[in-house]
TrEMBL record:
Subcellular location: Cell membrane
Record lineage: Eukaryota, Viridiplantae, Streptophyta, Embryophyta, Tracheophyta
Residue ranges of domain Protein kinase in the record: 818-1103
Name of the protein described by the UniProt record: non-specific serine/threonine protein kinase
Catalytic activity: L-threonyl-[protein] + ATP = O-phospho-L-threonyl-[protein] + ADP + H(+); L-seryl-[protein] + ATP = O-phospho-L-seryl-[protein] + ADP + H(+)
Spans through the membrane: 764-787
Length: 1111
């Protein structure tokens, strides 16, 4: 009995122990979950909740189970978890939901996820996952939602992913996926949302997408997709949102052909779509947003869009739309934003726009609109932004504008508005931006524009405003940019309150008088101050020293007096300091040595005394130093030779300097222009012999002696006027330098003895005999030339040519008798062939055919005579020529880099053209034209200057070509009759349309106009009649309009120059060259400079052309 009792208790205790162990042991799902934490760093709230002593994980944070205690949901979203998702996740076979979104998980997505066969919802978005989507995801046959957006995933989407029949939503946005969108997408017929945007997908949009008939959201924007939009998209009748913007899609827009009434948002922007906007889009009655910005759409805006009564946003800007704006748009009563800017729209703004009672933003700028802004528009109470600049709008601003309580931005610059601005503007609204530049407004500036204390930009330049600047401007502490330049403003500058926002101020070109207020020092973040060309007087305030961010200070052309305040030396970021043309005095403060960022220092035409400071050598970035026209004395400091970046101008003229030119000046290896004229300098000019970069020098009216260095009198722009007033200077003319020496006829030859008492009778007799012989030879030569010119046609028939016939034979041999495959160009007067006679003997042969063309041979002779008689480094040089009965051949040196047109517009990809190369091309071309206009006798006018006629050698040096149309005109002729208009459309000046007779001076201005167009092409890399311009707009009008807008050179230049513009010296030079070009292309010929002036302007950094260009 005892043994039975003992056995009972043994089995009882064994059962209890086994049962207890079974109750306390963690379930298998729990045992899978715990190792996941080994590779993760989780917050304590998660770590403490996941207890291994629990029997099941069903009560753990982020875990849900079914009735059988199987884990069906893992949700640890937004717990700032670090680490990796381990392969253990694949052992949770009952999982239906995984949400680990918005953490910092990294590594690859484990392929073991494919084992979770019950998974319906997988969300791993907003993490740091890398690698590819696992191919094993195809095993998730019940998957409904896949979300992995905002990670670093890459590779291609597996074709098998879209074989999952249950898939309804897929979010792959903002990753690095590549390859094409799989064609299998058409198998995912349950899809309602597909987000593939912000990736690197390429290829076409599959046609099979039209099978996804349940699709409601389609996001394909910001990829590299190409090809056409498939018209199968019209099958998606449930589609509410479609965005394909910022791709490379092309062709016509095939939408609007089906039932699109569910469509709310359609975004097609930033592609290459062409053709017209489909009128069928008017059937998409549910549209609230339609955007097709920055495409190549043409034609008229369809009036059917007026049927879209729910439309709140319509963006059709930056296309090539033309015609009038349909008045039906006024029926879109829900519109809040209407953007039609940057098109080619014409006509008037429809008065029906007044029915858009919810309109907030109206952008119609950069079109060809005319007429007035309808009064009805100014009565829309919700109006906030009106941007209609760069049109031909006119009229006055009505009083109704003052009642718009929501009005913030009015940008109407570059139009023809006139009249007085309503003086109460600003009182009833909180204006933010006022842009009225380049109109014809008059009267006074309204006194309360900053009444709402939110005004950031006030740009009223280039108008006819009168009166004083309102005190409201100075007390506007929110103002960031203030531009009042080139008006007729009078009175004093206002006092400025403390304003940390103001960065740019330009009040130049007015009639402001009085002193500069010391309160300028309150605007401590000013970077630019331009007060030039006014009538300011008094001292420069020492408070300028507070402006530690100042980079540009231009107070030139005023009546300022007194010494330079040393406090300016605190403005250590100064890049440009221009105080020229005032009455400042005293010495240059030694504290200026702290201005180490200075690249331009202009103090010319003042009354500064003392010497040129030695400390200037510390200003290592100086590229332009102008101290001319002062009362400086003493020696030229040796330290100036240390300014290795001195490139543009060194002007110390018109002072009282003495002593010799220091040899150290020879170290200025970049210097282009040197002016030491009108001083008391002595010694020789030999220190300048090493300045090989010089383009212009002026040493006149000093006491220099000895020979003029050969490098100086051979400068392209050198003339004896640059050396006059130095009686001790002489020239050394070597054999072959006759042309250079003729420019220095007033100087004696070095070594020539001038102390001879007289000539002997024998010498006089010999000279007389020699003179008679020379006269006889000249008469014989003139007679021979006369006889030859009497019979030019006969001469052509029998003349075998200037060069040896053997050379002609070689030319014909290597070109296979001028075979077409050797053609490198065609011009109006001939065909050009490339001739390679050896490694160093490459020529261009131009063939001109005469047969059947009356007068062709005469034209040939004219071209030969024209080209043969001139020699200049920037003009194509004729090497040889041969004439035959039916044709002629002219031989030139071959230019390795082709024409400027090729470099700018034809070669793909476009070659890099640094600014210094462009500037050299501009200056060289100007030198060539100057030579034709002023140094050739008779004068030569090209009359077809264009990039195709500017050839570039291996060093990118320009050479003007094609004188076949150049007309030689006797310089003594006062008038030229029956002028025939030559040239190329886009480069022909406007006055030729009504010119029948003209003068030599006016004909030269034709070349100046054409040259100005070429200059603008160099700067913008746009063609003279670029297709991107609005209709009836050429490059001159476009640049002028864009510049007058806000003087943003970045919007004008070739984008490849933007990086260089970070250098303020480069930006300043680009701007000045552009302004020269605009002056050259003035519609009024009398306002155009001569080519001689152009050369000077290109080299003269002081020229101030920032005035309103002619319209």
């Amino acid at each position: 009995m005892a043994s039975v009792f003992s056995s009972f208790f043994f089995f009882f205790f064994y059962f209890v122990i086994v049962s207890l162990s079974r109750v306390s042991a963690l379930s298998s799902d729990g045992e899978v979950l715990l190792p996941l934490l080994n590779n993760m760093k989780v917050p304590n709230s998660v770590k403490s909740s996941w207890n291994s002593s629990d029997s099941t994980p069903c009560h753990w944070l982020g875990i849900e189970c079914d009735l059988k205690h199987n884990v069906v949901s893992l949700n640890l979203s937004s717990y700032e978890i670090l680490g990796q998702l381990g392969p253990e996740i694949g052992r949770l076979k009952y999982l239906q939901t995984i949400d680990l979104s918005t953490n910092s998980l990294s590594g690859s997505i484990p392929k073991e996820l494919g084992n979770c066969s019950n998974l319906q919802y997988l969300n791993l978005c907003e993490n740091n996952f890398t690698g590819q989507l696992p191919e094993t995801l195809k095993n998730l046959h019940q998957l409904i939602v896949l979300s992995v957006f905002t990670n670093f995933l890459s590779g291609e989407i597996p074709e098998s992913l879209f074989q999952i029949q249950s898939l309804e939503e897929i979010y792959l946005s903002t990753n690095n996926f590549t390859g094409s969108i799989p064609n299998s997408i058409g198998n995912a017929t349950e899809l309602t949302s597909m987000w593939l945007d912000f990736n690197l997908f390429s290829g076409n949009i599959p046609y099979s997408i039209g099978n996804c008939t349940k699709l409601e959201e389609l996001h394909l924007n910001d990829n590299n997709l190409v090809g056409f939009l498939p018209d199968s998209l019209n099958n998606l009748e449930l589609l509410a949102y479609m965005d394909v913007s910022n791709n490379k899609l092309e062709g016509r827009i095939p939408l609007g052909l089906g039932n699109c009434k569910k469509l709310n948002v359609l975004v097609l922007s930033d592609n290459h779509f062409i053709g017209e906007i489909p009128s069928g889009l008017g059937n998409c009655s549910g549209l609230t947003s339609l955007a097709a910005v920055n495409n190549m759409l043409t034609g008229r805006i369809p009036s059917s869009l007026g049927s879209l009564h729910e439309l709140s946003v319509l963006y059709l800007n930056e296309n090539r739309l033309s015609g009038k704006i349909p008045r039906e748009i006024g029926k879109c009563r829900s519109l809040t934003s209407l953007l039609l800017n940057d098109n080619q729209l014409e006509g008037e703004i429809p008065a029906e726009f007044g029915m858009l009672s919810n309109l907030q933003t109206l952008q119609l700028f950069t079109n060809n609109l005319i007429g007035q802004i309808p009064l009805e528009v100014w009565r829309i109470p919700t109006l906030e932004n009106v941007l209609v600049y760069n049109n031909n709008l006119s009229g006055v601003l009505p009083l109704e504008i003052t009642e718009l309580h929501q009005l913030k931005n009015v940008s109407i610059f570059n139009n023809q508005f006139s009249g007085v601005i309503p003086q109460t503007l600003g009182i009833n609204s909180s204006l933010v931006e006022i842009e009225f530049t380049n109109n014809s407004f008059s009267g006074e500036i309204p006194p309360n524009l900053c009444f709402g204390k939110q005004l950031r930009l006030l740009n009223l330049g280039l108008n006819q405003f009168q009166g004083s600047i309102p005190s409201d401007v100075g007390s506007c502490s929110t103002l960031k940019r203030l531009i009042l330049k080139h008006n007729k403003l009078t009175g004093f500058l206002p006092d400025f309150v403390k304003n940390p926002n103001l960065s740019h101020m330009d009040i130049s070109g007015n009639l402001i008088n009085g002193t500069i207020p010391s309160s300028f020092g309150n605007c401590t973040n000013l970077t630019t101050i331009v007060l030039s060309m006014n009538k300011l007087s008094g001292f420069i305030p020492q408070e300028f020293g507070n402006l530690v961010e100042l980079q540009h200070l231009n107070l030139s052309d005023n009546h300022l007096q007194g010494p330079l305040p040393p406090q300016i030396s605190k403005c250590t970021k100064l890049d440009l300091l221009d105080l020229g043309f005032n009455s400042l005095n005293g010495s240059i403060p030694s504290s200026f040595r702290s201005l180490t960022q200075l690249s331009t220092l202009i103090l010319r035409e003042n009354q500064f005394t003392g010497g040129i400071p030695d400390f200037l050598s510390v200003l290592e970035k100086l590229s332009e130093l102008e101290l001319g026209g002062n009362l400086l004395g003493g020696y030229i400091p040796l330290a100036l030779g240390e300014l290795q970046n001195m490139e543009y101008v060194l002007n110390i003229s018109d002072n009282g300097l003495t002593g010799q030119l220091p040899t150290e000046l020879g170290k200025l290896s970049l210097l282009q222009r040197l002016d030491v004229s009108r001083n008391n300098l002595t010694g020789s000019l030999s220190p300048l012999n090493e300045l090989h970069s010089l383009l212009e020098v002026n040493v006149s009216y000093n006491l220099f002696t000895g020979p003029i260095p050969e490098t100086l009198f051979k400068l392209p722009n050198s003339s004896q006027s640059s050396f006059l007033g130095n009686t001790g200077l002489c020239v050394t003319c070597l054999l072959g330098d006759g042309l250079a020496c003729t420019k220095f006829i007033n100087f004696s030859l070095c070594g020539h003895r001038s102390d001879q008492k007289g000539l002997s009778s024998l010498k006089i007799a010999l000279i007389a005999i020699a003179s008679l012989l020379i006269c006889a030879l000249v008469l014989l030569l003139l007679g021979f030339i006369y006889l030859k010119r009497r019979r030019p046609e006969k001469m052509v028939e029998i003349w075998e040519g200037r060069g040896a016939s053997s050379l002609l034979n070689k030319v014909m041999e290597v070109t296979e008798n001028l075979n077409e495959r050797f053609i490198v160009g065609r011009g109006a007067h001939g065909t050009v062939y490339k001739v390679s006679l050896g490694p160093d003997k490459i020529y261009a042969a131009k063939k001109l055919a005469f047969a059947g063309k009356k007068g062709a041979s005469v034209s040939m002779i004219r071209e030969i005579e024209t080209v043969g008689e001139i020699k200049h480094r920037n003009l194509v040089r004729l090497e040889d020529f041969w004439l035959r009965k039916d044709y002629g051949v002219i031989l030139y040196n071959y230019m390795q880099n082709g024409s400027l047109h090729d470099i700018l517009h034809e070669i793909s990809p476009p070659p890099v053209l640094k600014w210094d190369v462009r500037y050299r091309i501009a200056l060289g071309t100007a030198h060539g034209l100057e030579y034709l206009h002023y140094d050739c006798n008779p004068t030569i006018v090209h009359r077809d200057i264009k990039p195709k006629n500017i050839l570039l050698d291996s060093e990118m040096e320009p050479h003007i070509s094609d004188f076949g149309i150049a007309k030689l005109i006797d310089h003594s002729s006062a008038s030229v009759h029956s002028i025939s208009v030559m040239g190329t459309v886009g480069y022909i000046p406007p006055e030729t349309a009504f010119t029948t007779t003209t003068t030599m001076a006016k004909i030269k201005k034709w070349d100046v106009y054409s040259y100005g167009v070429v200059l603008l092409e160099l700067i913008t890399r746009k063609k003279a009649l670029d297709p991107s311009f609005p209709e009836d707009t050429d490059i001159a009008k476009w640049v002028c309009s864009t510049w007058n807008n806000n003087e943003a050179i970045e919007e004008i230049v070739d984008p490849n120059l933007i990086d260089e513009l970070m250098d303020s010296a480069v930006m300043d030079e680009v701007i000045k060259v552009m302004l020269v070009a605009l002056q050259c292309t003035s519609k009024n010929p009398s306002e155009r400079p001569t080519m001689r002036d152009v050369v000077k302007k290109l080299k003269d950094a002081k020229v101030n052309l920032r005035s309103k260009c002619s319209k």
